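#struct-pred

JT: dropping the chains for the assembly here, can someone run the whole complex?
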Amino acid sequence: EIVLTQSPATLSLSPGERATLSCRASQSVGSFLAWYQQKPGQVPRLLIYDASNRATGIPPKFSGSGSGTLFTLTISSLEPEDFAVYYCQQRSNWPPTFGGGTKVEI
Amino acid sequence: EVQLVESGGGLVQPGRSLRLSCEASGFSFDDYAMHWVRQAPGKGLEWVSGISWNSGSADYAASVKGRFTISRDNAKNSLHLQMTSLRAEDTAFYYCAKDVSRSYFSPIFDNWGQGTLVTVSS
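RK: done, full complex below.
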């Protein structure tokens, strides 16, 4: 199965700063990569699918890029509600797998 | 508005069984594949099982294959997960998740339930 490695494990930033999160796949997943946000005590929420497409209702401050084995989620200007754990997930190969997550903290 | 409400979790002894359910509303349930995804407390996400829109096909993570069975009742807008031979490592929140397509084979999870906690302990 494909292993997704997210880095860094924790990202310490301040409101207003730009966040750059990485997800590396053990083999090519094409563009079949999604990003999810999980706030404390809440369920995951789909942010980005197929590497760069924002899900319904997701603001443009969230953007995704990459293909093959290296992907990036960028949050242009952090707001208090953006501090959460972010997971990547691939759907290129069976079974679907998730990365270990990046915690964005203040 | 899409709503997914899980039930059936609880404390169960190792080796015993448990059946989870997910009641869906706010969308055409029989048009979409559905999945179970779990999360051990304080840990990451793990896909568990998926089923196609018409129950024609389903699959499981290697960690649960042969022990868990997914099913759905489109007439009742419900999804189920029958779990047998439970182990301590099955302890997790179990989320019901909606796919964006009819096939479970290449999933995007666009809506999630609130989850139900399964604790396997003696």
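JT: nice. Residues 16 and 46 of chain A are 22 Å apart (CA to CA). Chain A touches chain B at residues 32, 34, 36, 43-46, 49-50, 55-56, 87, 89, 91-92, 94-101 (CB under 8 Å).
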